[in-house]
């Protein structure tokens, strides 16, 4: 396994969301997109509109939503990506989300703050497993009950100048580990975190009484 380093994606993503939670204010929207020209910013206004006017907490730029698609992605990568969507939808029960692996997303600042305060250092737990952290984030937002939606976007992979940093084998292994951790019947995330959330809500109600 590749030695972990400070700037691995999972670490960078966690730092990014911790910082966004610190810097943003309620009402702000945090947009995460790749820095490789494949994610066109022209979709952001519609993502923001869906949060501000339709009350969603998280909006995903999706290749699989109406008006969505991809240009320049090789058939193998397209196949792997499509299989990942199906797998993730089944094992995480995310039936209303079609785009799982593209991390071009808009988050309500309140959701980011809640995620960092609730999960703390465990916001990203799967370390050194390639791009798994992008799906782990979505699963954790689902655990928090985030209302999710999608807008169609065309992934312009034909514009990409740098080679992909995606390691399919590591990321695939990560997906399976994530699926086991989430669904594990004894102390898996699905039950553990839900119980913790309920406990937190009970305490909140008590405080208000
Ligand atoms: N800091 C950091 N960023 C990374 C790493 N791997 C990928 N990224 C960034 O994550 C995004 C997705 O990676 P990319 O290579 O574009 O993947 P692809 O578009 O799915 O082929 C890009 O903005 C990369 O710069 C990493 O190990 N460390
Ligand atoms: Mg990219």
The largest sheet is: 4 strands, mixed
Shape: globular
Helix % is: 40-55%
CATH topology: Spore Coat Polysaccharide Biosynthesis Protein SpsA, Chain A
On the 0 to 100 scale, the average pLDDT is 93
Proportion of strand residues: 5-15%
Please mark out the parts with pLDDT under 50 across 5 or more consecutive residues, or reply none. none
Number of strands: 6
What is the topology, as strand order, of the major beta sheet? 1-4-2-5
The number of helical runs is 7
Total number of domains: 1
Query: What would CATH call the architecture?
Result: Alpha-Beta Complex
The set of bound ligands, ions and cofactors reads: guanosine-5'-diphosphate, magnesium ion
CATH class: Alpha Beta
The H/E string reads HEHEEHEHHEEHH
Radius of gyration: 17 Å
Structural class estimated from helices and strands: alpha/beta
Distance between the termini: 52 Å
Helices and strands in order, then pairings?
Layout: H1 9-23, E1 29-32, H2 44-54, E2 58-62, E3 69-71, H3 75-91, E4 105-108, H4 109-119, H5 132-143, E5 148-152, E6 154-156, H6 168-183, H7 189-208
Parallel strand pairs: 2-5, 3-6
Antiparallel strand pairs: 1-4, 2-4
Bound molecules: guanosine-5'-diphosphate (GDP) and magnesium ion (MG).
């Amino acid at each position: 396994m590749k030695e972990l380093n400070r700037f691995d994606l999972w670490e960078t993503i966690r730092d990014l969301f911790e910082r966004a939670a610190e810097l943003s204010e309620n009402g702000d929207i945090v947009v995460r997109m790749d820095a490789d020209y494949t994610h066109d910013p022209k979709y952001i206004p519609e993502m923001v509109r869906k949060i501000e006017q339709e009350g969603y907490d998280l909006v995903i730029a999706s290749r699989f939503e109406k008006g969505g698609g991809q240009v320049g992605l090789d058939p193998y990568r397209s196949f792997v990506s499509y299989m990942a969507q199906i797998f993730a939808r089944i094992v995480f029960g995310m039936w209303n989300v079609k785009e799982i692996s593209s991390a071009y997303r808009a988050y309500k600042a309140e959701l980011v703050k809640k995620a960092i305060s609730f999960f703390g250092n465990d916001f990203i737990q799967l370390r050194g497993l390639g791009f798994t952290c992008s799906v782990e984030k979505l699963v954790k937002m689902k655990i928090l009950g985030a209302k999710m939606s999608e807008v169609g976007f065309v992934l312009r992979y034909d514009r990409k100048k740098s080679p992909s940093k995606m390691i399919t084998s590591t990321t695939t292994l990560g997906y399976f580990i994530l699926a086991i951790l989430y669904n594990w019947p004894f102390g898996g995330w699905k039950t553990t975190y839900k119980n913790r959330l309920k406990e937190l809500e009970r305490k909140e109600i008590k405080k208000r009484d």
